[in-house]
Write a structure and sequence with these properties.
single chain; alpha/beta; Rossmann fold; 9 helices; 7 strands; binds NADP nicotinamide-adenine-dinucleotide phosphate
Length: 242
């Protein structure tokens, strides 16, 4: 049975990916920092008949990533699909942004994703099958005032995706990015109603997306049907950027 590791699975898009992959018959490893939330989701999925494993992982620490991945390997013996979803924002105008806020965003969103990839790649190369799906952002493609750190981390993920796709394609491992637009989750919850309205007005489908809509794209890229797609950035953004 194919096994997927989803980072940032404790809520939002990551939780939706874990639920969607579990419903599609994959074994799912749920990783994030909030153990209790992970346990609750994993337990609920198990009750529904899925095989799941919850593991605490802090993407900003290399040691935490490697220890979590080795626990997951011990549990299921393999990781065939990695969904690099965990991400944070620490917004501010470039002149004022604190070095700590630059570093923590880069560490979690970009370095963390890379460390997770390094942990799972040897197994995928041995198996000669793998799917790496990085959750980027429309902001990494078009930029956004007040988000230089976040945009740089997501643009970095896109560069990583295309470079790694070239390295590992011959091993039957595909590497793609899903680039969400404006999605209803905790990350966007605190934005002002005015800003939300402005973003919706700029989105041709005239609404925010749902976490499930991102998860469906992830499920497709994880499937055998997507075997000839690699190095691609799949926009799931309601048309806000084309
Ligand atoms: P969210 O609701 O804030 O969830 C973020 C997830 O990342 C949580 O599960 C959180 O879990 C985890 N996380 C944060 N820091 C972590 C760390 N250091 N180590 C491990 N896990 C960590 O955000 P979301 O909207 O679902 O976003 C998911 C991804 O989609 C992110 O990469 C985000 O940049 C991207 N995205 C979102 C939107 C949007 O409009 N919502 C648009 C474009 C792209 P814990 O707190 O439990 O660790």
């Amino acid at each position: 049975m194919r096994t997927a590791l989803v980072t940032g699975a404790s809520r939002g898009i990551g939780e939706a990916c874990a639920r969607t992959l579990a419903a599609a018959g994959y074994r799912v490893i749920l990783a994030a920092r909030s153990r209790e939330k992970l346990n609750a989701i994993a337990e609920e999925l198990r009750t529904g008949g899925a095989e799941t494993f919850a593991v605490e992982m802090d993407l900003s620490s290399t040691d935490s990533v490697s220890s979590a991945v080795s626990k997951a390997f011990k549990e299921f013996g393999r990781i065939d699909i990695l969904v690099n979803n965990a991400g944070i924002t620490k917004d501010g105008l470039a002149v004022r942004i604190k070095t700590d806020d630059w570093n923590s965003v880069m560490q979690t969103n970009l370095s963390g994703a890379f460390h997770a990839i390094q942990q799972v790649l040897p197994g995928m190369m041995k198996e000669r099958w793998g799917r790496i799906i990085n959750i980027a952002s429309v902001v990494g493609e078009m930029g956004n005032a007040g988000q230089v750190n976040y945009a740089a981390s997501k643009a970095g993920l896109i560069g990583l995706t295309k470079s790694l796709a070239q390295e590992v394609g011959s091993r039957n491992i595909t590497v793609n990015a899903v680039s969400p637009g404006f999605i209803e989750t905790e990350m966007t919850e605190h934005l002002s109603p005015e800003l939300k309205e402005k973003m919706i007005a700029q989105t041709p489908v005239r609404r925010m997306g749902t976490a499930a809509e991102i998860a469906h794209a992830v499920k497709f890229l994880a499937s055998d049907e997507a075997s000839f797609i690699t190095g691609h950035v799949l926009s799931v953004n309601g048309g806000i950027y084309m």
